Amino acid sequence: MKAVVIEQAGGPEVLRYREVPMPDPGPGQVRVRLRAAGVNHRDIWLRLGRLGAVPSGIVPGSDGAGEVDALGPGVSGFELRQRVVINPGISCGHCPECLRGDQVACPVFHIYDGTYAEYAVVPAMNLVPMPTGLTFSEAASVGVPFVTAEEYLSRAGVAPGHTVLLWGATGGLGLATVQLAKLRGARVIAVTRDPDKGERLKQELRVDEVLVWDGTSDLSETVRAMTGGAGVDVAIDSLGSKTFVQSLAATRRGGVVVTVGSTTGGQVTLDLGQLFRRRLTVLGAYMGSTAVLPRLLSLFARGLLVPVIDHVYPLEQADQAHEQLERSDIFGKVVLEI
Ligand SMILES: [Zn+2]
Predict the structure, then answer these.
(1) Any domain includes 27
(2) Residue 110 Cα, ligand 1 centroid: separation in angstroms?
(3) Cα(181)–Cα(187) distance, rounded to whole angstroms?
(4) Which domain holds residue 227?
(5) Residue 99 Cα, ligand 1 centroid: separation in angstroms?
(6) What's the 105 CA to ligand 1 centre distance in angstroms?
(7) Which end of the chain, N or C, is less packed with Cβ atoms under 10 Å?
(8) Rounded to the nearest whole angstrom, what is the distance from the C-alpha of residue 111 to the centroid of ligand 1?
(9) 95 CA to middle of ligand 1, Å?
(10) What are 108-166's pLDDT values in tens digits?
(11) Ligand 1 mean position to 104 CA, how many Å?
(12) In Å, what is the CA distance from 287 to each residue of 63, 268, 282, 323?
């Protein structure tokens, strides 16, 4: 079968489209004929070696959708050619954390890699039937961003009447956050560097207010002024070093600052008084629990959430897909068609 393989850490050019052995499903596993793979920032971190040494020959890609191709021993409940979505959070399935639905807390929890390929072998419990009305590309764009966003909005207690500040609003995670926060009845203040994308956020995604940011200035006073001087209830920060201190300053006393990435760097200097005097909660978020995905997919099936795809590339152009995501030149998801 064909797959995109990383042999060593490096730029997009280290992504090689080549022949690899066909994987066979073991006990409890299913082989999926993939039709689309969602591209996530995680795939870029993996390629750059930021998740640790790059295992030679690893196939990147956590999100995918396709058809059941072969069942391993002991697997039931799936039919051949059934359309499925891969749930990328891998956990043991039987520890106390898994049994109470908190798969992210499972001692062996990790995120799946391997969907930039014609076939992938995954645990049967990580497959969710694909809802009708979605294309494979759309279904492959849901997993990581929507599960992650739903998890932190839930943990932060976002509810009707809350105001949410969101940096990096036009990427896959950003647009997932916008939609799920609006569904929870929150007012969303979104930050983008592109005025045209800001207009689209308002027109197409019902974002309440947009701030166009030059990449350096401090927006915290502006945000506080937009909230009657109090600050937002929840700030969601995936940018890191350039914005995290602003996020703290823009959040109301007793509010929550979610850190879910560090695309501008991971080092910040904090005045701890900002945290304890103002009773702030800093909430670290990383993926989310497996049980969330079927419910999210049903919201897509009902039209309450919509997939937003910026560009679809053929699998062999994964390098170009990575280049586009690294330029942050996106409004929605970048997807590979297989
Ligand atoms: Zn477990």
Answers:
(1) yes
(2) 10
(3) 8
(4) 146-284
(5) 7
(6) 7
(7) N
(8) 13
(9) 4
(10) 999 999 999 999 999 999 999 999 999 999 999 999 999 999 999 999 999 999 999 99
(11) 8
(12) 12, 22, 16, 23
Same domain, residue pair 169 and 72: no
94: domain CATH number is 3.90.180.10
Distance CA 246, CA 230 (A): 14
Q: How far is CA 274 from the centre of its chain?
A: 29
**Is residue 304 very low, low, confident or very high in pLDDT (cuts 50, 70, 90)?**
very high
Kind of pairing between the strands at 110-111 and 187-192: unpaired
Structure tokens at 310: 């910026």
62 located within any domain: yes
Query: Directed axis angle between helix 143-155 and helix 172-183, to 10°?
Result: 50
For residue 327, being part of any structural domain is answered with: yes
Contact 13, 63 (CB under 8 A): no
Q: At how many degrees (to 10) do helices 292-301 and 143-155 cross?
A: 110
Q: Is the pLDDT of residue 282 over 90?
A: yes
Q: How remote is the CA of residue 335 from the centroid of ligand 1, in Å? A: 30
Tell whether 240 is covered by a domain. Answer: yes
Question: What total of structural domains would you count in the chain?
Answer: 2
Could you tell me the distance, in angstroms and rounded to a whole number, from the CA of residue 253 to the centre of ligand 1? Answer: 36
How many angstroms is it from 258 CA to the middle of ligand 1?
25
